[in-house]
Design brief:
Length: 532
Protein backbone atom coordinates (compact mmCIF):
# COMPACT_ATOMS: atom_id res chain seq x y z
CA UNK A 1 0.00 0.00 0.00
CA UNK A 2 1.37 3.40 -0.95
CA UNK A 3 1.65 6.01 1.80
CA UNK A 4 -0.34 9.04 0.68
CA UNK A 5 1.55 12.18 1.74
CA UNK A 6 -0.90 14.82 0.65
CA UNK A 7 -2.60 16.98 3.29
CA UNK A 8 -6.11 16.37 2.03
CA UNK A 9 -7.72 15.50 -1.27
CA UNK A 10 -8.01 18.70 -3.24
CA UNK A 11 -8.93 18.79 -6.90
CA UNK A 12 -7.11 21.62 -8.65
CA UNK A 13 -9.23 22.87 -11.53
CA UNK A 14 -7.56 24.44 -14.53
CA UNK A 15 -9.01 27.96 -14.36
CA UNK A 16 -9.60 28.29 -18.07
CA UNK A 17 -11.23 24.87 -18.57
CA UNK A 18 -14.87 25.14 -19.57
CA UNK A 19 -15.72 21.45 -19.11
CA UNK A 20 -17.61 21.60 -22.36
CA UNK A 21 -17.83 18.88 -24.94
CA UNK A 22 -16.04 20.34 -27.92
CA UNK A 23 -14.57 19.10 -31.14
CA UNK A 24 -11.86 20.30 -33.47
CA UNK A 25 -11.30 19.83 -37.16
CA UNK A 26 -9.29 16.66 -37.74
CA UNK A 27 -7.36 18.24 -40.58
CA UNK A 28 -5.11 21.09 -39.55
CA UNK A 29 -5.68 23.98 -41.89
CA UNK A 30 -3.04 26.67 -41.92
CA UNK A 31 -4.61 29.92 -43.10
CA UNK A 32 -2.04 32.33 -44.45
CA UNK A 33 -3.15 35.89 -45.00
CA UNK A 34 -1.25 38.26 -47.28
CA UNK A 35 -2.41 41.60 -45.99
CA UNK A 36 -0.47 43.66 -48.50
CA UNK A 37 -2.29 42.03 -51.38
CA UNK A 38 -5.59 42.05 -49.49
CA UNK A 39 -6.15 38.38 -50.20
CA UNK A 40 -6.62 35.32 -48.04
CA UNK A 41 -6.27 31.72 -49.06
CA UNK A 42 -6.40 28.44 -47.16
CA UNK A 43 -3.52 26.04 -47.53
CA UNK A 44 -3.83 22.40 -46.53
CA UNK A 45 -0.61 20.41 -46.53
CA UNK A 46 -0.86 17.79 -49.25
CA UNK A 47 -0.55 14.12 -48.18
CA UNK A 48 -0.68 14.99 -44.48
CA UNK A 49 0.96 13.30 -42.72
CA UNK A 50 3.52 11.87 -45.09
CA UNK A 51 3.96 8.13 -44.48
CA UNK A 52 7.62 7.27 -43.76
CA UNK A 53 8.98 4.89 -46.38
CA UNK A 54 5.79 5.01 -48.44
CA UNK A 55 5.08 8.59 -49.49
CA UNK A 56 6.74 10.02 -52.59
CA UNK A 57 8.22 13.44 -51.84
CA UNK A 58 6.91 15.91 -54.41
CA UNK A 59 7.78 19.46 -55.32
CA UNK A 60 4.36 20.61 -54.07
CA UNK A 61 5.34 19.51 -50.55
CA UNK A 62 8.27 21.93 -50.67
CA UNK A 63 6.38 24.84 -52.24
CA UNK A 64 3.67 24.59 -49.57
CA UNK A 65 6.28 24.84 -46.83
CA UNK A 66 8.00 27.75 -48.58
CA UNK A 67 4.74 29.71 -48.65
CA UNK A 68 3.99 28.93 -45.00
CA UNK A 69 7.50 29.82 -43.82
CA UNK A 70 7.58 33.10 -45.72
CA UNK A 71 4.29 34.05 -44.05
CA UNK A 72 5.61 33.47 -40.54
CA UNK A 73 8.84 35.28 -41.49
CA UNK A 74 6.80 38.29 -42.59
CA UNK A 75 4.89 38.18 -39.30
CA UNK A 76 8.21 38.52 -37.46
CA UNK A 77 9.45 41.36 -39.67
CA UNK A 78 11.75 39.25 -41.87
CA UNK A 79 11.97 39.45 -45.64
CA UNK A 80 10.92 36.59 -47.86
CA UNK A 81 13.61 33.95 -48.18
CA UNK A 82 15.45 33.72 -51.51
CA UNK A 83 14.92 30.13 -52.58
CA UNK A 84 17.09 28.04 -54.88
CA UNK A 85 14.98 26.76 -57.78
CA UNK A 86 12.41 29.40 -56.97
CA UNK A 87 9.96 27.94 -59.48
CA UNK A 88 9.71 24.28 -58.58
CA UNK A 89 7.68 22.39 -61.17
CA UNK A 90 5.30 19.91 -59.51
CA UNK A 91 5.97 17.10 -61.97
CA UNK A 92 9.46 17.73 -63.31
CA UNK A 93 11.61 19.21 -60.53
CA UNK A 94 13.58 16.71 -58.44
CA UNK A 95 13.39 17.47 -54.72
CA UNK A 96 16.93 17.58 -53.30
CA UNK A 97 18.60 17.88 -49.95
CA UNK A 98 19.35 21.55 -50.54
CA UNK A 99 15.63 22.28 -50.68
CA UNK A 100 15.23 20.87 -47.16
CA UNK A 101 18.26 22.61 -45.68
CA UNK A 102 17.15 26.01 -46.90
CA UNK A 103 13.65 25.40 -45.50
CA UNK A 104 15.26 24.67 -42.14
CA UNK A 105 17.42 27.79 -42.39
CA UNK A 106 14.50 30.05 -43.30
CA UNK A 107 12.32 28.66 -40.52
CA UNK A 108 15.17 28.78 -37.99
CA UNK A 109 15.58 32.51 -38.63
CA UNK A 110 11.87 33.01 -37.85
CA UNK A 111 12.29 31.09 -34.58
CA UNK A 112 15.27 33.28 -33.70
CA UNK A 113 13.22 36.40 -34.43
CA UNK A 114 10.70 35.20 -31.82
CA UNK A 115 13.47 34.54 -29.31
CA UNK A 116 12.93 30.78 -29.46
CA UNK A 117 15.55 28.04 -29.95
CA UNK A 118 15.60 26.61 -33.45
CA UNK A 119 13.81 23.27 -33.94
CA UNK A 120 15.83 20.06 -33.73
CA UNK A 121 15.68 17.46 -36.49
CA UNK A 122 16.25 13.73 -36.71
CA UNK A 123 18.53 13.85 -39.76
CA UNK A 124 20.89 16.72 -39.02
CA UNK A 125 23.19 16.26 -42.02
CA UNK A 126 21.58 16.32 -45.45
CA UNK A 127 23.79 16.53 -48.52
CA UNK A 128 22.92 19.38 -50.89
CA UNK A 129 22.54 17.15 -53.96
CA UNK A 130 21.00 14.27 -52.05
CA UNK A 131 17.96 13.02 -53.99
CA UNK A 132 16.54 10.60 -51.42
CA UNK A 133 14.41 12.84 -49.21
CA UNK A 134 12.66 11.21 -46.28
CA UNK A 135 9.04 11.81 -45.27
CA UNK A 136 10.07 12.28 -41.65
CA UNK A 137 12.12 15.35 -42.63
CA UNK A 138 9.08 17.01 -44.20
CA UNK A 139 6.80 16.00 -41.32
CA UNK A 140 9.21 17.55 -38.82
CA UNK A 141 9.25 20.81 -40.76
CA UNK A 142 5.46 20.88 -40.92
CA UNK A 143 5.28 20.35 -37.16
CA UNK A 144 7.77 23.13 -36.52
CA UNK A 145 5.80 25.52 -38.76
CA UNK A 146 2.56 24.69 -36.94
CA UNK A 147 4.16 25.25 -33.54
CA UNK A 148 5.41 28.69 -34.59
CA UNK A 149 2.07 29.65 -36.14
CA UNK A 150 0.30 28.72 -32.89
CA UNK A 151 2.79 30.81 -30.91
CA UNK A 152 2.24 33.85 -33.16
CA UNK A 153 -1.56 33.49 -33.37
CA UNK A 154 -2.88 31.37 -30.49
CA UNK A 155 -6.51 30.18 -30.62
CA UNK A 156 -8.96 32.86 -29.44
CA UNK A 157 -11.54 32.12 -26.78
CA UNK A 158 -15.34 32.38 -27.10
CA UNK A 159 -16.80 33.75 -23.87
CA UNK A 160 -20.39 34.79 -24.59
CA UNK A 161 -23.59 32.81 -24.48
CA UNK A 162 -24.29 30.72 -27.58
CA UNK A 163 -28.06 30.71 -27.59
CA UNK A 164 -30.40 30.10 -30.51
CA UNK A 165 -31.26 33.31 -32.38
CA UNK A 166 -28.02 35.00 -31.41
CA UNK A 167 -26.38 37.37 -33.92
CA UNK A 168 -23.36 38.54 -31.89
CA UNK A 169 -20.57 36.46 -30.31
CA UNK A 170 -17.97 37.89 -27.93
CA UNK A 171 -14.59 36.56 -26.88
CA UNK A 172 -10.99 37.10 -25.80
CA UNK A 173 -7.92 37.15 -28.04
CA UNK A 174 -4.61 38.81 -28.85
CA UNK A 175 -4.84 42.64 -28.94
CA UNK A 176 -4.73 43.89 -32.51
CA UNK A 177 -5.59 40.52 -34.05
CA UNK A 178 -8.45 39.95 -36.48
CA UNK A 179 -10.96 37.27 -35.46
CA UNK A 180 -13.08 35.27 -37.87
CA UNK A 181 -16.04 33.21 -36.62
CA UNK A 182 -17.11 29.89 -38.14
CA UNK A 183 -20.52 28.28 -37.77
CA UNK A 184 -20.72 24.66 -38.89
CA UNK A 185 -17.44 25.13 -40.75
CA UNK A 186 -18.47 28.27 -42.68
CA UNK A 187 -17.37 31.85 -41.99
CA UNK A 188 -20.24 33.82 -40.47
CA UNK A 189 -20.58 37.43 -39.39
CA UNK A 190 -18.29 40.44 -39.76
CA UNK A 191 -14.58 39.92 -38.89
CA UNK A 192 -13.68 41.57 -35.60
CA UNK A 193 -10.54 43.35 -34.39
CA UNK A 194 -9.39 42.51 -30.86
CA UNK A 195 -9.21 45.69 -28.77
CA UNK A 196 -6.39 46.77 -26.45
CA UNK A 197 -8.03 44.96 -23.53
CA UNK A 198 -8.06 41.68 -25.48
CA UNK A 199 -11.80 41.65 -26.21
CA UNK A 200 -13.55 41.06 -29.55
CA UNK A 201 -17.12 40.94 -30.83
CA UNK A 202 -18.30 39.36 -34.09
CA UNK A 203 -21.58 40.92 -35.17
CA UNK A 204 -24.14 40.58 -37.98
CA UNK A 205 -24.30 36.77 -37.77
CA UNK A 206 -26.84 35.93 -40.47
CA UNK A 207 -28.71 33.66 -40.30
CA UNK A 208 -28.68 33.76 -36.48
CA UNK A 209 -27.31 30.84 -34.48
CA UNK A 210 -29.53 27.82 -34.18
CA UNK A 211 -29.63 24.94 -31.73
CA UNK A 212 -26.90 22.36 -32.30
CA UNK A 213 -24.88 24.76 -34.47
CA UNK A 214 -21.13 24.23 -33.97
CA UNK A 215 -19.20 27.46 -33.43
CA UNK A 216 -15.45 28.09 -33.46
CA UNK A 217 -13.10 30.99 -34.14
CA UNK A 218 -9.59 31.79 -35.30
CA UNK A 219 -7.41 34.88 -35.18
CA UNK A 220 -4.90 36.48 -37.53
CA UNK A 221 -1.85 38.22 -36.11
CA UNK A 222 0.57 40.09 -38.37
CA UNK A 223 -0.63 38.21 -41.43
CA UNK A 224 -0.57 34.72 -39.89
CA UNK A 225 -3.77 32.90 -38.99
CA UNK A 226 -3.48 30.35 -36.21
CA UNK A 227 -5.35 27.17 -35.27
CA UNK A 228 -9.04 27.06 -34.45
CA UNK A 229 -10.39 27.53 -30.96
CA UNK A 230 -12.28 24.72 -29.28
CA UNK A 231 -15.63 24.19 -30.94
CA UNK A 232 -18.77 24.77 -28.89
CA UNK A 233 -22.19 23.35 -29.72
CA UNK A 234 -25.19 25.63 -29.23
CA UNK A 235 -27.86 23.94 -27.18
CA UNK A 236 -29.85 23.88 -23.95
CA UNK A 237 -28.11 23.31 -20.63
CA UNK A 238 -28.70 23.35 -16.92
CA UNK A 239 -29.51 19.65 -16.37
CA UNK A 240 -27.49 16.70 -15.08
CA UNK A 241 -27.55 13.12 -16.37
CA UNK A 242 -25.51 10.04 -15.56
CA UNK A 243 -22.92 8.67 -17.96
CA UNK A 244 -20.60 5.68 -18.04
CA UNK A 245 -18.35 4.96 -15.06
CA UNK A 246 -14.58 5.22 -15.29
CA UNK A 247 -12.74 1.92 -15.50
CA UNK A 248 -11.02 2.67 -12.18
CA UNK A 249 -12.00 4.67 -9.10
CA UNK A 250 -9.61 7.56 -8.48
CA UNK A 251 -9.18 10.86 -6.66
CA UNK A 252 -6.67 13.70 -7.12
CA UNK A 253 -6.35 12.79 -10.79
CA UNK A 254 -6.43 15.10 -13.79
CA UNK A 255 -9.02 15.40 -16.56
CA UNK A 256 -8.03 17.17 -19.79
CA UNK A 257 -10.21 17.97 -22.79
CA UNK A 258 -8.47 16.89 -26.01
CA UNK A 259 -8.88 18.48 -29.42
CA UNK A 260 -11.10 15.68 -30.74
CA UNK A 261 -13.59 16.18 -27.92
CA UNK A 262 -12.53 13.18 -25.83
CA UNK A 263 -11.29 13.60 -22.25
CA UNK A 264 -8.01 12.20 -20.97
CA UNK A 265 -8.02 11.12 -17.31
CA UNK A 266 -4.64 10.26 -15.79
CA UNK A 267 -3.20 9.04 -12.50
CA UNK A 268 -4.69 9.60 -9.08
CA UNK A 269 -5.19 7.60 -5.89
CA UNK A 270 -7.55 4.58 -6.00
CA UNK A 271 -7.90 4.14 -2.24
CA UNK A 272 -4.98 1.75 -2.02
CA UNK A 273 -2.23 2.95 -4.35
CA UNK A 274 -1.26 5.84 -6.56
CA UNK A 275 -1.73 4.65 -10.14
CA UNK A 276 -0.07 5.05 -13.56
CA UNK A 277 -3.20 4.23 -15.53
CA UNK A 278 -5.01 6.59 -17.89
CA UNK A 279 -8.28 6.38 -19.75
CA UNK A 280 -10.29 8.24 -22.35
CA UNK A 281 -13.93 9.36 -22.19
CA UNK A 282 -15.86 9.53 -25.46
CA UNK A 283 -18.81 11.94 -25.10
CA UNK A 284 -20.45 10.64 -28.27
CA UNK A 285 -20.94 7.19 -26.73
CA UNK A 286 -20.67 8.01 -23.02
CA UNK A 287 -18.07 5.28 -22.57
CA UNK A 288 -14.51 5.00 -21.27
CA UNK A 289 -11.58 3.17 -22.85
CA UNK A 290 -8.11 2.36 -21.59
CA UNK A 291 -5.33 4.70 -22.72
CA UNK A 292 -1.60 4.17 -22.52
CA UNK A 293 -0.24 4.27 -18.97
CA UNK A 294 2.15 6.90 -17.69
CA UNK A 295 5.69 5.83 -16.88
CA UNK A 296 5.42 7.17 -13.32
CA UNK A 297 2.53 6.78 -10.85
CA UNK A 298 1.38 10.18 -9.66
CA UNK A 299 -1.50 12.00 -7.94
CA UNK A 300 -2.06 15.69 -7.13
CA UNK A 301 -0.10 16.44 -10.30
CA UNK A 302 -1.01 18.86 -13.08
CA UNK A 303 -2.06 18.23 -16.68
CA UNK A 304 -1.91 20.98 -19.30
CA UNK A 305 -3.02 20.74 -22.92
CA UNK A 306 -0.34 22.28 -25.10
CA UNK A 307 -1.00 24.38 -28.18
CA UNK A 308 -0.20 21.43 -30.48
CA UNK A 309 -2.81 19.23 -28.74
CA UNK A 310 -0.46 17.11 -26.64
CA UNK A 311 -0.86 17.00 -22.85
CA UNK A 312 1.94 17.80 -20.39
CA UNK A 313 1.73 16.03 -17.02
CA UNK A 314 4.12 17.25 -14.33
CA UNK A 315 5.02 16.47 -10.74
CA UNK A 316 2.68 14.94 -8.16
CA UNK A 317 3.23 12.44 -5.38
CA UNK A 318 3.30 8.64 -5.08
CA UNK A 319 4.66 8.04 -1.60
CA UNK A 320 7.40 10.49 -2.45
CA UNK A 321 7.20 13.76 -4.32
CA UNK A 322 7.86 13.66 -8.06
CA UNK A 323 9.95 15.95 -10.31
CA UNK A 324 9.47 14.13 -13.59
CA UNK A 325 7.18 15.16 -16.43
CA UNK A 326 5.80 13.34 -19.42
CA UNK A 327 3.77 14.18 -22.50
CA UNK A 328 0.76 12.32 -23.89
CA UNK A 329 0.37 12.31 -27.68
CA UNK A 330 -3.30 11.76 -28.66
CA UNK A 331 -2.32 10.80 -32.22
CA UNK A 332 -0.40 7.73 -31.00
CA UNK A 333 -1.96 7.19 -27.57
CA UNK A 334 1.49 7.00 -26.00
CA UNK A 335 3.50 8.85 -23.36
CA UNK A 336 7.06 10.12 -23.68
CA UNK A 337 9.45 11.65 -21.16
CA UNK A 338 9.45 15.45 -20.93
CA UNK A 339 12.44 16.01 -18.69
CA UNK A 340 12.51 16.78 -14.99
CA UNK A 341 11.54 19.92 -13.16
CA UNK A 342 14.28 21.50 -11.06
CA UNK A 343 12.56 20.29 -7.86
CA UNK A 344 9.95 17.73 -6.84
CA UNK A 345 6.54 19.27 -6.33
CA UNK A 346 2.89 18.43 -5.67
CA UNK A 347 -0.11 20.69 -5.19
CA UNK A 348 1.44 23.19 -7.61
CA UNK A 349 -0.18 25.01 -10.52
CA UNK A 350 0.54 24.79 -14.25
CA UNK A 351 -0.61 27.57 -16.58
CA UNK A 352 -0.44 27.64 -20.38
CA UNK A 353 0.96 31.02 -21.39
CA UNK A 354 0.02 32.88 -24.57
CA UNK A 355 3.38 32.03 -26.18
CA UNK A 356 2.78 28.27 -25.75
CA UNK A 357 5.08 27.74 -22.76
CA UNK A 358 3.81 26.34 -19.45
CA UNK A 359 4.42 28.12 -16.13
CA UNK A 360 4.69 25.79 -13.12
CA UNK A 361 4.66 27.53 -9.75
CA UNK A 362 4.80 26.64 -6.06
CA UNK A 363 3.55 23.42 -4.52
CA UNK A 364 4.96 21.20 -1.81
CA UNK A 365 8.17 19.20 -2.22
CA UNK A 366 11.80 19.96 -2.80
CA UNK A 367 14.73 18.39 -0.99
CA UNK A 368 13.47 19.36 2.45
CA UNK A 369 9.77 18.76 1.90
CA UNK A 370 8.76 22.41 2.08
CA UNK A 371 6.18 24.72 0.61
CA UNK A 372 7.82 26.19 -2.51
CA UNK A 373 8.11 29.70 -3.90
CA UNK A 374 10.12 28.84 -7.00
CA UNK A 375 8.72 28.59 -10.51
CA UNK A 376 9.87 27.19 -13.83
CA UNK A 377 8.89 27.11 -17.49
CA UNK A 378 8.41 24.21 -19.89
CA UNK A 379 9.04 24.96 -23.57
CA UNK A 380 7.27 22.40 -25.80
CA UNK A 381 9.31 23.43 -28.85
CA UNK A 382 12.50 22.18 -27.18
CA UNK A 383 11.05 19.80 -24.59
CA UNK A 384 13.13 21.45 -21.87
CA UNK A 385 12.61 23.14 -18.51
CA UNK A 386 14.15 26.42 -17.34
CA UNK A 387 13.87 28.32 -14.10
CA UNK A 388 12.15 31.69 -13.92
CA UNK A 389 11.61 34.21 -11.16
CA UNK A 390 10.35 32.94 -7.79
CA UNK A 391 7.04 34.04 -6.28
CA UNK A 392 7.19 36.59 -3.48
CA UNK A 393 5.42 34.09 -1.18
CA UNK A 394 5.81 30.32 -0.95
CA UNK A 395 2.46 28.64 -1.51
CA UNK A 396 0.67 25.38 -2.32
CA UNK A 397 -2.99 24.59 -3.06
CA UNK A 398 -3.20 28.09 -4.53
CA UNK A 399 -4.73 29.14 -7.85
CA UNK A 400 -3.12 30.50 -11.02
CA UNK A 401 -5.23 32.27 -13.64
CA UNK A 402 -4.13 33.51 -17.07
CA UNK A 403 -5.41 37.07 -17.51
CA UNK A 404 -6.47 38.64 -20.79
CA UNK A 405 -3.24 40.66 -21.02
CA UNK A 406 -1.07 37.52 -20.74
CA UNK A 407 -0.05 37.94 -17.10
CA UNK A 408 -0.79 35.24 -14.53
CA UNK A 409 -2.64 35.94 -11.28
CA UNK A 410 -1.65 33.68 -8.36
CA UNK A 411 -3.80 33.91 -5.24
CA UNK A 412 -3.97 32.38 -1.76
CA UNK A 413 -2.64 29.00 -0.79
CA UNK A 414 -0.96 27.42 2.22
CA UNK A 415 2.50 28.76 3.05
CA UNK A 416 3.54 26.49 5.93
CA UNK A 417 2.84 22.76 5.65
CA UNK A 418 4.51 22.16 9.04
CA UNK A 419 1.41 23.62 10.66
CA UNK A 420 -0.86 21.33 8.69
CA UNK A 421 -2.08 24.41 6.84
CA UNK A 422 -3.90 25.65 9.91
CA UNK A 423 -3.23 29.29 10.62
CA UNK A 424 -0.79 29.37 7.69
CA UNK A 425 -3.19 30.26 4.90
CA UNK A 426 -2.36 33.30 2.76
CA UNK A 427 -4.63 36.07 1.51
CA UNK A 428 -1.89 37.55 -0.66
CA UNK A 429 -1.86 37.61 -4.44
CA UNK A 430 0.81 38.33 -7.04
CA UNK A 431 1.23 38.69 -10.78
CA UNK A 432 3.70 36.97 -13.12
CA UNK A 433 4.85 38.83 -16.24
CA UNK A 434 6.05 36.34 -18.91
CA UNK A 435 7.86 39.10 -20.82
CA UNK A 436 10.24 39.73 -17.91
CA UNK A 437 9.97 36.48 -15.96
CA UNK A 438 9.30 38.41 -12.76
CA UNK A 439 6.61 38.52 -10.06
CA UNK A 440 5.06 41.56 -8.43
CA UNK A 441 2.65 41.86 -5.52
CA UNK A 442 -0.92 42.94 -6.16
CA UNK A 443 -3.86 43.58 -3.84
CA UNK A 444 -4.60 40.92 -1.22
CA UNK A 445 -7.91 39.10 -0.92
CA UNK A 446 -10.16 40.04 1.98
CA UNK A 447 -10.16 36.40 3.16
CA UNK A 448 -7.17 34.05 3.41
CA UNK A 449 -7.93 30.82 1.58
CA UNK A 450 -6.54 27.68 -0.04
CA UNK A 451 -8.35 24.93 -1.92
CA UNK A 452 -10.49 27.66 -3.48
CA UNK A 453 -11.28 28.21 -7.16
CA UNK A 454 -10.39 31.09 -9.47
CA UNK A 455 -12.32 31.64 -12.69
CA UNK A 456 -11.64 34.19 -15.44
CA UNK A 457 -14.96 35.90 -16.22
CA UNK A 458 -15.98 37.24 -19.62
CA UNK A 459 -15.20 40.84 -18.63
CA UNK A 460 -11.60 39.96 -17.74
CA UNK A 461 -12.07 39.97 -13.96
CA UNK A 462 -11.41 36.89 -11.80
CA UNK A 463 -13.94 35.24 -9.46
CA UNK A 464 -12.46 33.52 -6.38
CA UNK A 465 -14.83 31.36 -4.34
CA UNK A 466 -14.78 29.18 -1.23
CA UNK A 467 -11.73 27.45 0.21
CA UNK A 468 -10.22 26.84 3.66
CA UNK A 469 -9.10 29.81 5.81
CA UNK A 470 -7.02 27.87 8.34
CA UNK A 471 -9.90 27.45 10.76
CA UNK A 472 -12.95 26.58 8.73
CA UNK A 473 -14.23 26.05 5.20
CA UNK A 474 -15.72 29.29 3.85
CA UNK A 475 -18.56 30.28 1.53
CA UNK A 476 -17.37 33.81 0.74
CA UNK A 477 -16.39 34.95 -2.76
CA UNK A 478 -14.64 37.98 -4.18
CA UNK A 479 -13.65 39.42 -7.56
CA UNK A 480 -10.23 40.68 -8.71
CA UNK A 481 -10.03 43.57 -11.19
CA UNK A 482 -6.72 43.47 -13.13
CA UNK A 483 -7.10 47.10 -14.23
CA UNK A 484 -6.95 48.36 -10.63
CA UNK A 485 -5.23 45.45 -8.86
CA UNK A 486 -7.97 45.38 -6.24
CA UNK A 487 -10.53 42.91 -4.87
CA UNK A 488 -14.20 43.48 -4.12
CA UNK A 489 -16.71 41.29 -2.28
CA UNK A 490 -19.47 39.53 -4.21
CA UNK A 491 -22.28 37.17 -3.28
CA UNK A 492 -21.33 34.13 -1.18
CA UNK A 493 -21.84 30.51 -2.14
CA UNK A 494 -25.03 28.96 -0.79
CA UNK A 495 -22.86 26.47 1.14
CA UNK A 496 -19.20 26.49 2.20
CA UNK A 497 -16.90 24.51 -0.11
CA UNK A 498 -13.23 23.53 -0.28
CA UNK A 499 -11.52 21.52 -3.01
CA UNK A 500 -14.48 22.04 -5.33
CA UNK A 501 -14.43 22.89 -9.04
CA UNK A 502 -15.60 25.96 -10.95
CA UNK A 503 -16.27 26.09 -14.69
CA UNK A 504 -17.12 29.09 -16.87
CA UNK A 505 -20.20 28.30 -18.96
CA UNK A 506 -20.92 29.67 -22.44
CA UNK A 507 -23.49 32.16 -21.12
CA UNK A 508 -20.91 33.79 -18.84
CA UNK A 509 -22.15 32.18 -15.62
CA UNK A 510 -19.98 29.92 -13.46
CA UNK A 511 -20.86 26.37 -12.43
CA UNK A 512 -19.47 25.42 -8.99
CA UNK A 513 -19.73 21.77 -7.92
CA UNK A 514 -18.69 19.35 -5.19
CA UNK A 515 -15.92 19.83 -2.66
CA UNK A 516 -15.63 19.34 1.09
CA UNK A 517 -18.27 20.84 3.39
CA UNK A 518 -18.17 22.02 6.98
CA UNK A 519 -19.90 18.97 8.49
CA UNK A 520 -16.92 16.82 9.51
CA UNK A 521 -15.35 17.37 6.11
CA UNK A 522 -18.25 15.66 4.34
CA UNK A 523 -17.90 15.55 0.57
CA UNK A 524 -20.63 17.46 -1.28
CA UNK A 525 -22.48 16.42 -4.44
CA UNK A 526 -24.39 19.70 -4.77
CA UNK A 527 -23.79 22.33 -7.43
CA UNK A 528 -24.71 25.98 -7.88
CA UNK A 529 -24.46 28.76 -10.47
CA UNK A 530 -22.86 32.18 -10.07
CA UNK A 531 -24.31 34.95 -12.27
CA UNK A 532 -22.04 38.00 -12.63
Amino acid sequence: MTLWPYRRSVVHPEPRSKWLVSRRRTTLVLLIVHLAAGTCFAQIFTDDPLAPGASVIKAVHVTELRSAINSVRAARGLTSFSWIDSSLMPKTTQVKGIHLTELRTALGQAYQAMGKPEPTYTDISIAAQQTVVNAVDLNELRGAVRALVAAIAPPPRITSSLGAGMQTVNGIGTPGATVLLFVNGFARGAPAVVDAQGRWSVTDINPPLGKKDVVTAEETVNGVTGPLSDQITVGPGGTWSTTGDMRAARVDFTATLLRDGTVLVAGGFNGVDVVVSAELYDPTTGTWSTAGSMSVARAAHTATRLVDGRVLVAGGANGAFVASAEVYDPTTGTWSAAGNMSVTRSGHTATLLTDGRVLVAGGFGGAGGDVLANAELYDPTTGTWSTTGSMTVAREVHTATLLIDGRVLVAGGCDDQSLGCRGAISASAELYAPTTGTWSATGSMSVARDGHTATLLTDGTVLVAGGFNGVDIVASAEIYDPTTGTWSATGSLSVARDGHTAALLTDGTVLVAGGFGRASGAVRASAEIFSP
